[in-house]
Structure prediction request, 244 residues.
Amino acid sequence: MKTLIIIPSRLSATRLPGKPLLKINDISIISHVFNKAKETNIGEVMVAAEDQEIVNDVKKNGGKAILTSNKHKTGTDRIYEAYQQLKLDNIDFIMNIQGDEPAINIQDIIKLNQMMINHKKAEIGTLAATIKNKSDLTNENIVKVITQNNLEDDPFSHAKTFLRKSEDALNIYHHIGIYCYSSEILKNFVELAQSKNEIENRLEQLRALDNNIKINVALASKAPIGVDTEEDYLALKKIMEYKS
Prediction:
């Protein structure tokens, strides 16, 4: 089975403009993510960017990048354009890894890919981690997923819903923004109109659930620190530079 990893990236993030090119250990965040994806050895890796500066930076750091339209509403639309541009044959899965999680665990990425291979009928796969702090439930920057079954008992359970704010609930987890699509489902997904649910909650995975596309969830070792704010960036920079 062949997997293609695409990392969508753009400079115009609202909360932290220029985020992909912020440096940790003298390497940009986007290039850190590219290197992590490459280390998984599960397939070719490509950054899909709407800005030439990102393409230049990734290539300068030895990675591969492709320029896409700046008109896309979501990251999934961007990765689909990149997939079409690449014209690769026999791709079974396209994996979408967020460009702002340079601390994502390599083994978790490998696990998700393997789960998709093992579950032949899976349409979309994603990851989630155990919620450690109750305050995460009401933090809108942390997306939650509620699964049909406990992920310890059912290691690739279906997602019931995704939300930004929640009370404590049965089988609720910290969602990690990585998706693995079967190539056929990705094509179907991007042809669907954005759903009301998706627009109101700013969560494009709700478009899939609203259109009866199932999302399976695997348990990750932990939730990586995503970079949404300057505080996140400085905290992660400190951790990663200390480790090195």
